[in-house]
Design goal:
The protein contains 13 helices and 28 strands. The structure holds 2-acetamido-2-deoxy-beta-D-glucopyranose (9 copies). It comes from Linum tenue. Its cofactor is Zn(2+).
Length: 696
């Protein structure tokens, strides 16, 4: 079963060997089948039945790399089934997951209710599969970035009207699908295979970019939707390399001002800060010297246009560049133009406190970079799958750091240089022959009772207790690696007063090893392989962001959900050059797919809040389809399975008895059926529904 797409699969060469011997032995056995072999089979089945509820057990056929000769597999299975059934003690048959599930259900038993997962997984005392949560962070970011881009691109493709003769987003969708493979985004493929995944993504992204560019051209062109076809009077560029500060169109020389069209893929009004290399009217092949930071407001599922031109020499009013060196008279440097403040010590250059002016939450906090040395133990070394530090105490990168402070009217920036390589975040030096697994740690004095929370695939947050699992007794042999969890959205800790939340910009690993602490693994550069099939050490360079906030207890959920959506779906930027007047005369500078003034409720952003997560937003939310698609008449609304491949009305749901005192979990709140005329979709907390709409 590959339902856990995040779990990479075992591919040990030793296993393959064992399997080959097994196969040749089977071939041998089947020519002279004896009762001993049938007995082995029956015994193995009975041993498994002994630890399984009901008398139905499942044996899966095949595995990674081991299911390639269907003919020989089936020939041998046919014989096995025949002789095992002749023996009569057990009944063997070819089956499917649904036949198996029906058989379990028909047994009328009661079942334990499981609401959590099995993380972290280990297949040996020192073999916790918690390294791949972070392995290849550059590739993980690439996949995340394009996933958000793909959603936005599909929206503008729909908005402008698909045109069969123009480029489309299918290739990017396909490449993203392939990248979900359990050895792709997990970072557990060889370098050359990873390069191939990245190449497919890049090809898909290039085509999607062309789609977006022509769709934008259509949207802003004042022509009726779907009528602008190939007549692209504007060519936009999009700067996919903003992550490394590379955006020729904002920097390149043009006598005309820069036009920035900003698209908001979220269903609510959005005010955000844009940061682009500053347009100086001159081309530059260098790393940009100046950055332009400005605030934009964009309607839901819509766009707004900004014009940037160089003013003839004026006084710099907002570039008071307060380098700490010049102003460090005070002990404490306060940062943050808004309500969230961060205090830094001028002596150490390190963060010392965070407080929220609105909520009054105020917490001493320290942030540091450290690294674990990768174990090189020949029995089990650290590698792409497995995280095994050779000591439980990480090495600190720097006690005091150089601090530069830049204050603008909109944003304040702090540049800390922990070491030459942390500043750039890579390449991690390994000339000392030590593999390094780099983390950042936030340390507070919060009393967290060994408890932290991590998201489950970006949806629910699950409670994690240090060295503890809910459903079984556990001895953790690796106090660090055995307490790492995968983060897709982020993590948080709470005490009686406040919540400290950290959100991530890509899938990564994280832990709360000591009370009041959160650590994120940022990067891994390892010199050994861990013997799980990659056969190569990990070596990648990377740069990234994470997002921190501090709220009153119970107040963090709203921030995590909305900010999480904004991180996943950043504003889409498209650049071109034109005079403002000329542009405005022939283009529409803003627009939205939705009815003007309508916006999705804040808790409907593909994700709603869980009951109890936030009092105001954990209720039934409503989406008015008519207002979402203005100018279009919805002829039919059909509810589908989540993946839209089956009508919901045709789906059968089995009912199961829950073990225990008969007190079921309270039934979750669910939205009702959609009225064909009113066309309002209700969503319960954490509910996801899929509809197919037919337009007239
Ligand atoms: C079933 O489990 C019990 C308890 O663990 C054990 O004593 C017994 O030998 C097992 N039987 C089989 C057939 O494995
Ligand atoms: C399960 O219950 C159904 C209906 O109550 C009954 O028809 C069936 O025989 C039961 N099955 C078993 C295995 O007890
Ligand atoms: C997308 O474009 C390709 C050609 O690049 C074409 O083969 C395919 O049918 C198109 N897909 C859709 C959904 O229009
Ligand atoms: C699709 O684009 C082509 C040019 O590539 C254009 O001739 C045609 O009119 C467009 N079709 C529609 C329906 O817009
Ligand atoms: C900001 O201050 C630093 C340190 O004094 C200086 O090196 C840098 O050139 C200044 N930058 C600008 C844009 O003025
Ligand atoms: C600490 O956690 C343990 C185990 O999860 C729980 O039983 C206990 O009530 C908690 N204590 C406090 C003060 O929350
Ligand atoms: C764990 O161990 C304790 C004490 O030995 C025991 O009471 C409890 O039933 C065990 N729990 C599980 C899930 O095995
Ligand atoms: C920046 O993004 C591109 C793809 O858009 C990726 O190939 C590259 O590795 C990224 N660079 C860094 C330093 O993250
Ligand atoms: C979104 O913002 C615009 C402009 O600020 C405003 O006119 C509109 O009413 C807002 N819409 C909603 C639903 O808040």
């Amino acid at each position: 079963m590959h339902s856990q797409s995040i779990m990479p699969h075992l591919k040990v060469s030793i296993l393959k060997l064992v399997m080959k011997t097994f196969l040749s032995r089977m071939i041998l056995l089947f020519s002279t089948i004896t009762s001993i072999n049938v007995k082995d089979f029956v015994d193995a089945a009975k041993a498994q039945a002994n630890v399984t509820r009901t008398n139905h057990i499942m044996w899966t056929m095949g595995d990674d790399f081991q299911y390639q000769f269907a003919e020989s597999w089936f020939r041998q299975m046919d014989k096995f089934i025949k002789y095992v059934n002749k023996d009569g003690e057990i009944n063997a048959l070819y089956s499917t997951p649904s036949i198996y599930t029906d058989a379990k259900n028909a047994a009328n038993g009661s079942w334990p209710l499981k609401t959590d997962d099995y993380f972290p997984y280990a297949d040996g005392d020192n073999a916790y599969w918690t390294g791949y949560f972070t392995s290849r962070p550059g590739f993980k970011r690439f996949v995340r970035q394009l996933s958000g881009y793909y959603l936005a691109a599909r929206q503008v493709e729909f908005l402008a009207g698909k045109n069969k003769t123009l480029p489309n987003t299918s290739k990017l969708g396909d490449a993203l699908g392939v990248a979900q493979h359990h050895d792709a985004v997990s970072g557990t493929a060889k370098q050359h295979t990873t390069n191939d995944y990245a190449k497919r993504l890049a090809i898909g992204a290039t085509e999607a970019e062309a789609t977006v560019s022509s769709a934008f051209s259509c949207l802003v062109s004042n022509k009726i939707k779907g009528q602008c076809g190939g007549s692209q009077d504007t060519t936009f560029s999009q700067c996919q390399l903003l992550n490394i500060s590379y955006c020729p169109s904002t920097e390149a020389g043009s006598s005309k001002p820069l036009v920035v069209v900003v698209y908001n893929p979220l269903g609510w009004n959005r005010t955000d800060i844009i940061r682009i290399p500053a347009y100086t009217g001159q081309s530059s092949n260098q790393i940009p010297q100046n950055w332009l930071v400005f605030q934009v407001t964009v309607p839901p599922l819509g766009w707004a246009t900004y014009f940037i031109s160089k003013e003839p020499k004026t006084e710099r009013t907002h570039s008071d560049n307060n380098s700490l060196k010049d102003t460090a008279v005070d002990e404490v440097v306060e940062i943050g133009p808004g309500n969230l403040k961060m205090l830094f010590s001028s002596a150490s250059g390190q963060l010392t406190r965070m407080f929220n002016k609105v909520t009054g939450v105020d917490t001493p906090i320290q942030q540091s970079y450290l690294w674990y040395a990768s174990s090189t133990d020949s029995q089990q070394s650290s590698g792409a799958y497995i995280f095994r530090p050779d000591s439980n105490t990480p090495t600190i990168v720097a006690q005091s750091v150089h601090l530069d402070v830049f204050r603008g009217p909109l944003v304040h920036e702090v540049h800390q240089q922990f070491s030459p390589w942390i500043y750039q975040i890579g390449p991690i030096p390994t000339d000392d022959n030590i593999g390094k697994e780099v983390i950042t740690k936030m340390t507070t004095n919060m009393v967290t009772n060994k408890t932290s929370y991590t998201d489950s695939n970006g949806r629910d947050f699950l409670k994690r207790v240090y060295d503890q699992r809910n459903d079984w007794n556990l001895s953790v042999n690796q106090p660090i690696a055995g307490n790492y969890y995968p983060l897709n959205l982020g993590t948080f800790i709470t005490d009686s007063k406040s919540e400290l939340s950290v959100l991530v910009d890509r899938a990564t690993g994280g832990a709360s090893i000591n009370d009041g602490e959160i650590e994120l693994m940022l990067h891994r550069r390892i010199l050994q392989d861990d013997g799980r099939g990659v056969g190569e050490p990990l070596d990648e360079q990377v740069r990234g962001n994470y997002y921190v906030n501090i709220n009153k207890l119970g107040g963090g959920a709203t921030w995590r959900r909305t900010t999480g959506q904004e991180i996943y779906s950043p504003l889409l930027l498209a650049f071109t050059h034109e005079d403002e007047k000329t542009w405005k005369a022939s283009h529409s500078t803003s627009g939205t797919m939705m009815e003007t003034g309508y916006s999705l409720p804040l808790n409907v952003a593909l994700i709603t809040l869980e009951v109890g997560e936030d009092a105001a937003y954990s209720t039934v939310a409503k989406v008015e389809l008519k207002k979402m698609f203005t100018g279009k008449e919805i002829k039919e609304v059909k509810e589908m399975s989540l993946s839209a491949n089956q009508e919901k009305s045709g789906m059968k749901r089995l009912s199961w008895k829950v073990e225990g005192d008969g007190v079921d979990e309270t039934a979750p709140v669910r939205g009702g059926a959609v009225d064909a005329l009113i066309q309002v979709v209700e969503l319960g907390p954490m509910e996801i529904r899929t509809f197919v709409l037919t337009f007239s």
